[in-house]
Amino acid sequence: MKITFTQFLTLDGVFQAPGGPDEDRGGGFEHGGWSVPYGDDDFGAFIDQVFARADAFLLGRGTYEIFAGYWPAVHDPDNVVATKLNDLPKYVASTTLTGADWQNSRIIGREDLVKDVTALKEQPGRELQMHGSGGLARSLMGHDLIDTLHLLTFPVVLGTGKRLFAEGAPPTAFRLTQSRTTSTGVVISTYERAGRPEYGSY
């Protein structure tokens, strides 16, 4: 499987708490729920397309707990997101979580996250999907383990919050493979990892 990573971002690169005020108040963050006003049919259609390709999920502890608190109660067979999340294997990267009760969930990474994720990638399948889980994504990008990025850039600047590409991120080149814009101005860009940057001079 290849790892695909879907992340909501502001124009200034913040990924923290896009879905609600209390999603993540770490560092005194007061802007939770910033993505909600931009949801539309274009956004929903893209999310459904992504989830339809999933064969398993890799989630950080925080995202797992948010998802596990909502999606198990959604039983609509026509809801692609709910069906995939409830039925497929879910791997939770955590050294502190003591249990993962959502069906088909397993905790990984207690001793060696890179080894565990590499083993998952070697299993047959299409996509091992990450959604949210920005902290986990930063760790995995440092080891070149994420193959595809779906970055949804929302037309808002917050000025504070956790950023996906923080100081010290490994230099990495990407190739843009697809781009679209929703009716509310969210730019959805898909990138494939393309090795290290090349440098020149003008």
Structure write-up:
This protein is 22% helix and 24% strand. The chain is of the alpha/beta class and 202 residues long. The chain has helices at 41-52, 61-68, 80-87, 113-121, 134-141; strands at residues 2-9, 54-60, 90-93, 105-108, 127-131, 148-153, 174-181, 187-193. The protein starts with a strand and ends in a 9-residue tail after the last strand.
Short description:
The protein has helices at residues 41-52, 61-68, 80-87, 113-121, 134-141, and strands at residues 2-9, 54-60, 90-93, 105-108, 127-131, 148-153, 174-181, 187-193. The protein is an alpha/beta fold and 202 residues long. It starts with a strand and ends in a 9-residue tail after the last strand.
- Determine Rg (CA atoms, Å): 17 Å
SSE sequence, one letter per element: EHEHHEEHEHEEE
Number of alpha- plus pi-helical segments? 5
Distance between the termini: 40 Å
Neighbour order of strands in the largest sheet: 4-3-2-5-1-6-8-7
| Class inferred from helices and paired strands | alpha/beta
Helical content (DSSP H or I, runs of 4+): 10-25%
Binned strand content: 15-25%
Categorize the overall geometry: globular
| Strand element count | 8
Low-confidence stretches: none
* pLDDT averaged residue by residue: 96
Main sheet attributes: strand count, strand direction, barrel closure: 8 strands, mixed
